[in-house]
Amino acid sequence: MTRDVGLGQGFPPRTIAIVGVSRSEHMYHPGYTGSRLFRILRESEFQGRIYPVNPKADVIDGVKAYPSVTSVPEPLDFVIIGVPAAAVPQVLEDCIAAGALNVQILSSGFGETGEAEGKRLEKRIREIALRGGLRVIGPNCMGFHIPSIRMKMFEEVELVQGPVAFLSQSGGHARIYLLHGPHRGIGFSKVISYGNALMMDATDFLEYLATDPETRIICMYLEGMKDGERFAKLVRQLNPTKPVVIWKGGLTYSGARAASSHTGSLAGDRQIWDAFFEQTGAIRVDSIEEMAEVTMALLRLKPSPGKRVAVLGAGGGDSVATGDICAEEGLEMPAISPQTRAGLLEFVSLVNQGVMNPLDIPMVFAELSTLQRTFELLAADPLIDIIILHMSAEFFPKIWGHRMAEFRECILNVTQKGGKPIVLAVTDESKTDEPETYVRELVGAGIPAYTTLRGACRALRRFADYHEFVAEGGT
Known about the structure:
Blueprint (H helix, E strand, L loop, with lengths): L14 E5 L14 H10 L5 E5 L5 E2 L2 E2 L13 E4 L6 H11 L3 E4 L10 H17 L2 E3 L5 E3 L15 E8 L2 H10 L7 E6 L8 H9 L6 E6 L5 H11 L5 E5 L4 H11 L6 H11 L2 E3 L2 H13 L8 E5 L2 H13 L9 H8 L13 E2 L7 H13 L5 E7 L2 H6 L3 H15 L3 E6 L7 H10 L4 E2 L2 H19 L4
């Protein structure tokens, strides 16, 4: 991409033309079509004007259609192209003539196919875009999801606004994050699916998000990268103020081969990416689930000075497994201070219980006042940075039942007073109760909660590593 071209003017869009809107959706076509996106934007009540383009139609679904983008009666902020690959070059020429510079190529059938014709078409559209100064997103991409203007790319996702941006070469991963992110308290500023990244790639979108006032956290799914040096420099500059969370795909032979087929990307060497993460401080994850787990911690927790955790649970066997998991995920589990131990022993019996860390003291769960007192002692302990409450889902209805609101208030009060984060791991070892229900309820109240202890520990370690990197000045 030329350095003077990027998102900005005419973005977010208020006027959109969709080229390739058919009069009927009855014909089978794999993937998304112009017609489908036209319907999605209308049903989502996009806060702007939409112009369907079809030279063979006068009206589509009650909306006046136009034969080309050059015939649309006002300047266009954005053009979505959903015609067959062979027809895309002419549409790009029309965009140049109309002065419509922001263009998304929804269509596939280009370099990602590996075929000579697809590569030839891709080379041609690149030449046209460079000549006309077009900002081309794609091809082979879903484009934009922007809740603030009610613009979305999938029917079944909600328009949940928030401070998290997601850049993804995969439309499928964008959909999964949009579907499941809100269940972890994640709302979105911008989601951009950019496919083959022929012209604009992750670095261009990252530059846009760097100054986007709606965005505080940037998540990314990458398959390939064109200018690694420029990208690394930008991530390093941005990361201290806007955390960057990255899932890098294609680091194995099989994954790299799949990336080439999916978006035509050259995936890159694992050692190079290892060095990238070490030097930039970007947070590394290996799935959408892990991305959501880390993002929830970044959104809900205050910066932690370290990785020293106290785990409060019930059950000796669980305590042993808890210690193993914390250590395996890179968290420290120090002994609690003598003062904390003495404070606990004022109301905790050592009969069938233990105040070693992890703490096996099931009796404190019987009364919320006792649980709160336990939390307050741990929060005041100078040897502890983070508190994890590890509970089986089956105990929630048995112990707290109708007092769930009081339980949530207890945690929030201690967090506000003590300043140390409290995180819940609601698990299902007994296979008798579904933890997801309780996790969503807790997350909805602003309490970070996870469905596995390992997921909680993994997120907390990455959260702590990030803040340690920032505190040390990124060295």
